[in-house]
Amino acid sequence: MSLQMRGATYAYAGTKATVLEGVDLDVEPGRVVAVVGPNESGKSTLCLVAAGLAPAAIGGRLSGSVVLDGQETATLKPYEAAQRCGILFQNPATQLSGTSATVWEELAFGPRNLGLSIEEVVERVEGAMTTLQIGGLAERDPHRLSGGQAQLVALASVVALRPSMLILDEPTSQLDPAGTRLVGDALARLAASGTAILLVEHKTGLVERVADQVVLLVGGRVETVGPAATVLADPQLDEFGVDPPPSARITRALAAAGHADRLAGLDLAALEAEPVVSGGLGGGA
Amino acid sequence: MTGPAIQLEGVSFDYPRGPRALDGIDLQVATGELVAIVGQNGSGKSTLVRHVNGLLRPTSGSVAINGRPVGRRHVAELAREVGLAFQNPDRQIFAGKVRAEVAFGPRNLGRRGADLDAVVERALAIVGLTGDEDTNPYDLGFSRRKLLALASILAMETPIVILDEPTTGQDARGISRVQKIVADLSAAGLTVIAISHDMRFVAESFQRVVVMRAGRIVLDGAPQGVFAEEAWPTLASTFLEPPLAARVGARLGLGATPTEAALVSALAAQAPAR
């Protein structure tokens, strides 16, 4: 098991209110577990706790157990936790090392700190740039990218570390539809090669495409957990402030209007997963 | 006020030591229009709107707001006419309390006392942050910091409001709230412009969609046209996709149906519900 949480309960330093309450969560190698939930339900906190950053790096009180690769995070030194899992923060600006003049150097920062050979560093940087198709940004100043470009660079910098576990807090929030599709493909490939992935994501269309399991987090508690298709089809998602995937929304809208039969033989989720024009995005006119 | 709310003529912009971000933009937005700007990451959307409130000045070409050239007018003066909520709220938020954050703009515009309090209260109510007046903005989660940044702009009561990716990080309720705010501002006669990657939001909430690619405008029209099947290759060329409703409509031979509501009415028009 890459990540195992049992009864994880957490409060930030200087506050009494618990933000996570008795969370049980398992992420196995090669699996994508997505976390959905309304704003302020504890999703970002869950990422910090799962990565071992809370309480080790930011303080606060944790009870219950959080085990990364067989070891309690409470007993891991920050660098040990960092070697077990890579975390992508919600705000890409938070991720930048602040020491690099180019995107290439920014991606090399992590692998170099792992003490890898130059050849290995180069290979990892080039690999991460290919995975996220950001080769064109290699010479750019990482502090002067658009919001979406910065987000892809931040994700590439984590991917370059090749962690066995990836924790991603809304990795596509600032991406265009093609960027979102690209990240979805990259996550599917990483999972296929054995990476365990914990994905916090509001875009349920993406969750539908890549997640094996979905956790619905509400008020710091796990409300529902199950196979992605089951949880995403749950009509109570709406009530909890989670937007159902576009395919489910359309199915429901047509059913409500009495036109459900018109969708017979049309797999909306598959239609959504298909490229819109042949040759994919970025081609065409 | 004379002339269109926003007029850009032949606007180009080069970042110093950077790429050309805008390449000969001609854009006219009438007072009261509701416009979405879409396009791939790095296509120049945020650069474009920064020309409207004077944060950036064109390398060549001209910008006029409400019929008056921006020229050398100061950002502080333009702030009376144009409010811009940034994509990243943390670039905007600086005060220690929510109330002070929202009061900063209107105070700089000369509002004081009970009048200022009322403006702040109203803005916080619109975004749903009533009760958080004394909270430190950084104790709010990302989605609520985003709404706070929006409230700060609304409190300035400018006739032109620009929102850079207002739905980012919002859950379903947050998106509905932003949709209602946009509709209310527009109904009140304001000129509203939003940058977004959320095509459903764009199709449902905007009258006009401007599509950008590499610093140029490649499509400009109603959602009905911009998301119609003929336009998909152009959308794809700037890394965009139509909303799923449009794809379903095309597959069912219903023509352009950019929203779920349009899809349902097209079906109803074709055959009565069973």
In spatial order, strands of the major sheet of chain A run 6-7-8-3-9-10
What's the total number of strands of chain A?
10
Basic shape of chain A: globular
Please give the number of β-strands of chain B: 10
| Overall body shape of chain B | globular
Number of helices of chain A: 12
Determine the oligomeric state from the structure.
heterodimer
β content of chain B, as a range?
15-25%
Largest sheet of chain B: 6 strands, mixed
Q: How many domains make up the coordinates of chain A?
A: 2
By CATH, the architecture of the largest domain in chain A is named 3-Layer(aba) Sandwich
Largest β-sheet summary of chain A: 6 strands, mixed
The chain-level structural class of chain B is alpha/beta
Computed structural class of chain A? alpha/beta
**CATH class descriptor of the largest domain in chain A:** Alpha Beta
Describe it for me?
The complex is a heterodimer of chains A (285) and B (274). Chain A is of the alpha/beta class and 285 residues long. Chain A contains 12 helices and 10 strands. Chain A has helices at 43-50, 78-84, 92-95, 103-113, 118-131, 147-159, 177-192, 204-210, 228-233, 236-239, 246-256, 268-273; strands at 3-11, 20-27, 32-36, 61-68, 71-72, 85-88, 165-169, 196-200, 213-218, 221-227. Chain A has a 6-stranded mixed β-sheet with strand order 6-7-8-3-9-10, with helices on both faces. In chain A, a hairpin with an 8-residue loop joins strand 1 (3-11) and strand 2. Chain B is built from 11 helices and 10 strands. The longest helix of chain B has 16 residues, at 172-187. Chain B is globular and about 60 Å long. The termini of chain B are far apart. The model of chain B has no long low-confidence stretch (mean pLDDT 93). At the A-B interface, helix 6, helix 7, helix 11 and helix 12 of A face helix 5, helix 6, helix 9, helix 10 and helix 11 of B.
